[in-house]
Design brief:
The protein has 161 residues and is an alpha+beta fold. The chain is built from five helices and four strands, in the order ααααββαββ. The strands form two sheets. It has a two-stranded antiparallel sheet with strand order 1-2. It has a two-stranded antiparallel ribbon with strand order 3-4. It is elongated.
């Protein structure tokens, strides 16, 4: 019985790990993505909150039953660690990990083109000019942040890529 319960706990930890991290692995900003990758990723994203909650509840019941009959601090520590992993994955499943990769710029700033050290000569930029006021936004930067809310020539502008 102990071996079966231990196996269930290990499998639940692995299942929780997979339903949380596989979508984050499949959605990569600069890697090509297939429609099936996107479908799997979004399906797992929808399924992960209830799946990890169920895994947490079943895993904790199994761990509790094992705890009472387990001797030794190493085995009890492993049970506690498995429980912490299940709690952690249940929390992560409720995070929008698609936004982890594409977080907004906390302090956007602008510099003159001659002072822009983070832009290489061959980098593509998205540029705009309104009323003699010009801006250029490096595409690699936009690829991670997707939006720039700014004002150009006194006009509010949202630049996106």
């Amino acid at each position: 019985m102990k071996k079966a319960l231990s196996t269930v706990v290990v499998l639940l930890v692995i299942l929780s790990l997979l339903v949380v991290l596989v979508p984050a692995y499949l959605i990569q900003p600069f890697a090509s993505q297939t429609q099936s990758d996107l479908d799997v990723s979004y399906a797992l994203r929808r399924a992960s909150p209830p799946a990890t909650l169920a895994a947490l509840l079943v895993g904790l019941v199994c761990a509790f039953k094992l705890w009472r009959s387990t001797r030794g601090w190493v085995r009890k520590s492993l049970l506690a660690f498995a429980g912490l992993l299940l709690v952690g994955f249940a929390i992560l499943a409720r995070e929008n990990h698609f936004e982890w990769m594409f977080h907004p710029l906390p302090q956007p700033g602008y510099v003159e083109a001659a002072k822009a050290r983070h832009v290489q000569g061959g980098d593509m930029v998205l540029s705009i000019e309104i009323g003699g006021d010009a801006r250029a936004y490096p595409v690699p930067l936009l690829a991670y942040h997707h939006l720039v809310n700014t004002t150009v020539g006194g006009e509010p502008v949202v630049a996106t890529y």
